[in-house]
Amino acid sequence: MNYITIALAKGRLAELSVDLLEQAGLNVSELREKTRKLIFTDEENKYKFILVKASDVPTYVEYGAADIGIVGRDTLLEARKDLYETINLGFGSCRMAVAGPKELAGKLDQIHNMRVATKYTQIAKNYYHLVKKQSVEIIKLHGSVELAPLVGLSEVIVDIVESGKTLKENGLEVLEDVCDLSARFVINRVSLKMESERILSLVNKIKELLKQ
Ligand code: PRP
Predict the structure, then answer these.
(1) Residue 144: CB within 6 Å of ligand 1?
(2) Residue 38 burial class via C-beta count within 10 angstroms: exposed 0-12, middle 13-18, buried 19 and up
(3) 3-class SS string, 68-124
(4) Which of 3, 50, 95, 175 has its CA 20 to 30 A from that of 22?
(5) Nearest C-alpha to atom 2 of ligand 1 is from which residue?
(6) What is the pLDDT of residues 17-48, one digit of tens each?
(7) Per the confidence metrics, is the pTM higher than 0.85?
C-alpha cells in the first residue's frame, strides 16, 4: 500500500490539525514528540505527515509532494493554486480586515491613491480592484504589519484579526471586513483520483467528527 502524505502548516493550526487527525483514527504519536523532525510516519495506516511553513502547503499539494494539506483559507486565497478544497474545518477561525486609525472610519473611499500595507497582496488586490473597484497602492510587508500606519508607511493595513488584541494595543481598529477565514482540508486532484477510496474515507470521518 502506498503512503498518503498530509502537509500540515506549522504554527497556530498545527496542534489543532494533529488533534483532528488523531480523532479521525490516524496514529499521530510521532507528531506529538517534541523533535525538530519534519517528516513523521503512521506505519499502521500508511500515512506520512510533513510539517511545512503555512505558505508552502499549497505548493506541496499542487505538485503532489503531499496528497492532502491542512491550511488556513488566507494562505489558499493568497496562493491561488488549483487544489480541490473539500472541508471547512472550522478551527483557526478569524477574519481578514482593513484596519487603521479610527479617525479614518467612514472616510476610506475619499482617500486618493490610498496606501495599503499587507502580507496578503493577492487578497488585498482582489478586494480593492474587484470588490471595491478602488485604485490603491499595495505595499508588501512580511510581518508586524500593524506598524505601517503608525510610522506613515501606509494609511491602512489588510491583515488577519483574531482576538483584536494586536490592533488595540497599537491604537488601530477594524474599518472594513474583507472575509472570514478558517482552516481548510485540501487535496491534490490527481491523488483524489488515484487514492479516492482512502482519501474519501478520511474526508467522511472528518465530516462526521465536525457534525458532533
Ligand atoms: C497575525 C496577524 C496579526 C495578529 C492578529 O500575526 O498578522 O498581527 O496575528 O492576532 P490578534 O487579533 O489575536 O492580535 P502573526 O502572529 O502571524 O505575526 P506576524 O504578522 O508578525 O507574522
Answers:
(1) yes
(2) exposed
(3) EEEEEHHHHHHHCCCCEEEEECCCCCEEEEEEECHHHCCCHHHCCCCEEEECCHHHH
(4) 95
(5) 160
(6) 999 999 999 999 999 998 899 999 999 999 99
(7) yes
